[in-house]
Design a protein that fits this description.
InterPro entries: Dabb, Dimeric_a/b-barrel. The chain contains three helices and six strands. The protein has 105 residues and is α+β, with helices and mostly antiparallel strands. It has a single domain, classed as Alpha-Beta Plaits, CATH 3.30.70.
């Protein structure tokens, strides 16, 4: 199993909406991918707690896949690509970090 974690730091205001509005919409759109992309085994999205440090990330995605190949298919899926384009306009230029690691059984 592969665990894929991605974190974003959102702009305070983007695309005519506040950070809070964009975070809620990004979470909604990401979780909708569970129904569209069969390679996803599990997926959770968490938003940073109000009042946390300004240097913290605002959004975290934790997802799992049966293999690296399935995770790579997920990343190329048109719905995921569209989500990536959507989020790119909302996040800080350097506001993305990620890791993929193998879960030991």
């Amino acid at each position: 199993m592969i665990c894929h974690i991605v974190m974003f730091k959102f702009k305070e205001f983007a695309e005519g909406r506040s950070k809070a509005e964009n975070l809620a919409e990004a979470k909604r759109r990401m979780l909708a991918l569970r129904e569209e992309i069969p390679e996803i085994v599990s997926m959770e999205v968490f938003l940073g707690a109000p009042g946390s440090a300004d240097t913290n990330y605002d959004y975290i995605l934790v997802s799992t896949f049966r293999s690296m190949e399935e995770m790579l298919r997920y990343q190329k899926h048109p719905s995921h690509v569209a989500f990536g384009n959507f989020v790119k306009a909302l996040r800080e230029p350097d506001g993305r970090a990620s890791i993929d690691y193998e879960l030991k059984e």
